[in-house]
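Query protein
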Amino acid sequence: MARLRRAVRHSRLKLVLIVVALLLGNLVPVHAQTSSSWNLVQVFPRPICGSYRNGSTANPTIWILLTLSGTWTRPVNFGLSNPPPGATVARTTFVNGNPVPYQPIAPGSGDGSGGALGRVEVTYHLGATPPGTYTATLWASDGVVTRSLPVTLIVKMEKCSSY
């Protein structure tokens, strides 16, 4: 009988502790998961041409400017996948409209029509990057959401016309 009483008291104590934990849990603030709702926007979306100018420019560099629209609550990394063969890729971030060494785009919001938040620089190398038309992928990711856009890159020996 004494054993039964101890077991009942022990069960009651567990029940009281569970109720207290549940009550306290309701008093502790819970941070809601914020969702990001953003899109990648290419500034001046059109084919981008780089020219060797008949050999006078051995390493032409083109720029792909990007911005975001919507609200992003985490830093956003960006880059370019599938560049033309032999090309090198670098990135620059814009902070308050000024270019700075690459860093993820800070959390924020926008409508996609403001200034660029980032720049991807693609350098072609004469002899390594053959003339042609290539489709690369501009991408951005906050670690949870990833967005991408196809980008047409044109490499020419002769001067580019207006692209």
